[in-house]
Structures are given as C-alpha cells and as structure tokens.
Design brief:
The protein is an alpha/beta fold. The protein contains 17 helices and 20 strands. The strands form 8 sheets. It has a 4-stranded antiparallel sheet. A hairpin with a 4-residue loop joins strand 7 and strand 8.
C-alpha cells in the first residue's frame, strides 16, 4: 500500500476559459494533464466553471489515455473559493496535501487492449498510453484472513463482483463504485482511488479552516453540484469515482470533526452505478437518522466502524439494515463453555467469574460481525443481529452459577455446562455412579478410585 516516495510532488495546471472552444485546444490540455500525472504524484487542475461542467468527460478521456486520473483533482477557481470562503492559494494547499497523502497508496493498473494510441502519445508517453488506471478495492489480506467466517463484503456488492477470502475483485463485473468498503466494520477494505487516510486529512484541514460541510459527488456531478439543494454554510466539494466510495467510517470521522456530509448523485437512475449509490444513501440515511452528536472529547479516532459508532449518542428509531453494527444474544442453551470467547478474533467476547457466578460478556464496539462465535458454538445458542446501540463496554449476554465439587466444594466451572453434560450422559445410558462423578473435582475422583481399589484389594484378601 505504501509508496516509498520521500517527497511527493504535486503539479498545478491552470485551464483557460476557452477550453471547450475547439477540439485541438482540448486535446492539448488533456495531454498536458496526462503528462503531468506521469511526472508528479498528483495534479491539481484549476479552471473556470466551464471546465467543471466537462469534468466527467475530461476524466474519461484521461483514463482512456492511460493517465493516472484518480490522482487528478479539479478546483473551480470561482465557485469553490466562493463556497468555501477560502482564498485560491489556501484552497489549493488543502488539495495538494490530499494528493500527497493519496500518493502513499498504489493504484490498480490494467491494460487497455482497445486503446487507440496516437504516434505522438506513443513517442511522448511510451507504453503507459496503453495502460488504464482502475478504481478497484484493496484489502488488508493478513488481517482479513484472521476473520475466516466473515463475508459481509461479498454480500454487500449489488454486482456480485467479489469472491473468495480475502476478497478478490472479479474485474469483468466490478463497476468501481467502492460500496463494499463501507461493509467492512474493521476498515480493512478500501479504495486506493479514494484513500481513507487522505480523506481524513482532507476533513482535518477543512475543519481547521472553518469549513462546515463536505459535499461528495462524482466527476459527472462536478459542475452541477453547486446548484444542488443542500444545507447552507461553508463547504468543500470532493469528487470521487462514485459517492459510494466515501466510506461510512470517514462519514463518522467527519461528524466527529464537526463537519456534516451531503451526497450529490448527478445522474441518478441513469448511472450504471446507481444500485450502489442508492444502497449507500440508505446507509447514510440510517446514520443521520439514528446517530446523535458525539458523546464527548476523544483523543484518537479509531479506524473500526463499531468503535467510531460508540463515540456517538444514539437515538434509534428502527433496527438498521445497512449499517454493519452488531449485537450478540444467547439463548438458554448457552452453557458458558467459553468456545466463543476463545475463538473471537477481536476480543469482543470473554468469560468472567465473580464469586459464584460465571458470565459471558460482549463488547459491541469490538464486534466486527465475522460470525465465528455463531458458527462454532457447539450448542447453537448464539445469534448475531444488527443494532445501533454500540458501547465501548462489556455487557452480560449469558450467566450461570458455579458448580462445586460435591466432596470438597472446589469450583468445577459453570453449572449450566455441567447440567448440559449430565443430560447428554444420561441420554447415552450411562449409570448413575458415572453421572454423579461429573460433580467431583479431579482430586476427589482420584481419591474415590483409590478407595474403591483399596476396598477391592481388602475383599480379595
């Protein structure tokens, strides 16, 4: 994920108002941007409103030319400065820092076999003209592999473009929307074209400058976003491959930093990614409807979604259907055997004994919904469901008294576990003496066997 570039370099290109007046002028501009994206780690394009209206087409052309289009940012020098109440230089410095942070992530590259490369491009840019940069997702494979039962990302994709564990992208089906990245509570799934740490750095910079709102759109909405209805206040426009690429993790982070986030999908149902955008807007709606203000001061914002959610007050109105936040419940069949706590990869479950009581404790802020506990429970006593009330504290989901040795009183473990074992032994037809031996500690069992041995020897003599 990390690029070993000691000093990321960002170039600026200023467009003239006459950009769309002729095909030749547009072609020269595209080549200039493509060449700059090849030389530098990022490019900030500064232009008039006319260029913003063409931005979707411009990025499409750049992608076809093999340019690193995800590392090209557009700034409308008239409307962005007016919307943010920032000077142009101040605004550009924010985007340059965003691109520098983005350069730490390696973009996906494919080969564009259908590319029509001109001789001029081939001479100036070489074989890179036949490449195509993609907005596919990456995953922290090592950490993901530790959650073998988790398939939330696979289930979230409306295009069935993910498979395997860790997930792999089926390139022929993926529309590069980024929706799946919000489905991973652990934050292990991300889009290098919309880098999480770069988005957080952007949020930090915006907050420090007094920006009140972040408006997320796609390249096709870059020109019309200023006319979209929305709340008032100083705002910054962030264009991503799709509005679904803005993860819920960063949405909560922005709320922690005091920024509201609105989403503008310019094409709506006409867009091939609309199914993803619609699902993302539903999840965002659940956040806005059910999460209140931050509970208090926080030192460092976590990367995991449940931990982020635990920092907010909750005003739940309905059970969530999109947000990957979970609660665990246990039926009376739970024996407190501890198998689930031993298997939990995040420490969300633990057994605790307090005097003559054993409890199974659950921390919802640590749960990532991997279902390992549900799948491995020998009694099938656990149920994982979505919830909004997330707290960074352990709560009791099951409890039992402590069974004690009937001979010496030593603790044997949860009474529910011994009762379950007794029931199974009886069902298999074992004699009463064997059943009663379940309630003896190992020391007393050995003593009992020894006494029985002495008695048999005595009788034999």
């Amino acid at each position: 994920m990390s690029r070993n570039s000691p000093a990321p370099r960002v170039e600026r290109i200023v467009l003239e108002p006459s950009l769309g007046s002729g095909h030749g002028a547009l072609g020269e501009t595209l080549r200039a941007i493509a060449d700059a994206s090849e030389r530098a780690d990022g490019v900030v394009v500064v232009g008039p409103p006319e260029a913003a209206n063409l931005w979707g087409s411009i990025l499409g052309e750049l992608a076809g030319m093999g340019a690193r289009w995800p590392r090209v940012v557009f700034v409308d020098k008239e409307r962005d400065t007016a919307l943010s109440f920032l000077g142009l230089e101040e605004l550009l410095s924010i985007w340059e820092e965003y691109l520098r942070e983005s350069s730490r992530y390696t973009l996906h590259i494919g080969v564009n076999l259908d590319a029509r490369v001109s001789r001029r491009d081939l001479l100036s840019r070489g074989l890179s003209s036949a490449l195509r940069y993609l907005a596919l997702v990456d995953v922290d494979s090592l950490r993901c592999a530790r959650l073998p039962g988790c398939a939330l990302c696979l289930q979230s994709c409306p295009f069935s473009a993910l498979e395997g564990k860790p997930p792999r992208v089926k390139g022929e089906k993926c529309l590069e929307c980024g929706l799946c990245t919000s489905s991973c509570p652990s934050g292990l799934l991300f889009q290098p074209a919309a880098p999480p740490s770069a988005v957080r750095k952007l949020v930090d910079a915006a907050s420090s400058k007094g920006i009140e709102r972040l408006v997320v759109t796609c390249p096709w909405g870059r020109g019309s976003v200023y006319d979209a209805p929305g709340s008032s206040g100083r705002a910054l426009v962030l264009a991503l491959p799709c509005i679904a690429a803005f993860r819920l993790h960063e949405l909560l982070y922005a709320k922690l930093r005091g920024l509201s986030v609105s989403f503008y999908c310019a094409l709506g149902e006409k867009c091939s990614r609309w199914a993803a955008a619609k699902l993302h807007l539903e999840a965002v709606g659940e956040v806005e409807e059910n999460l209140g203000p931050p509970l208090g001061a926080w030192a460092t914002a976590p990367s995991e979604l449940p931990k982020l959610a635990s920092l907010f007050a909750v005003k739940p109105r309905a059970a969530p259907t999109r947000l990957p936040l979970f609660r665990l419940s246990a039926s009376e069949a739970c024996t407190l055997c501890g198998a689930c706590a031993n298997l939990c990869p995040t420490g969300a479950l633990k057994l605790s004994q307090d005097g003559d009581k054993v409890s199974l404790l659950f921390n919802s802020s640590l749960c990532v919904g991997c279902s390992a506990c549900v799948e491995k429970c020998p009694e099938k006593a656990l149920t994982l469901s979505r919830q909004l009330q997330v707290a960074d504290a352990f709560e009791v989901v099951a409890s039992s008294g402590v069974a004690r040795c009937r001979q010496c009183g030593a603790p044997l473990g949860p009474l529910a576990k011994l009762k379950s074992l007794e029931r199974r032994v009886r069902e298999r037809g074992f004699d009463e003496e064997t059943i009663q031996s379940l309630y003896l500690c190992e020391k007393c069992k050995h003593e009992k066997l020894f006494q029985e041995f002495l008695s048999s020897v005595t009788r034999g003599s």
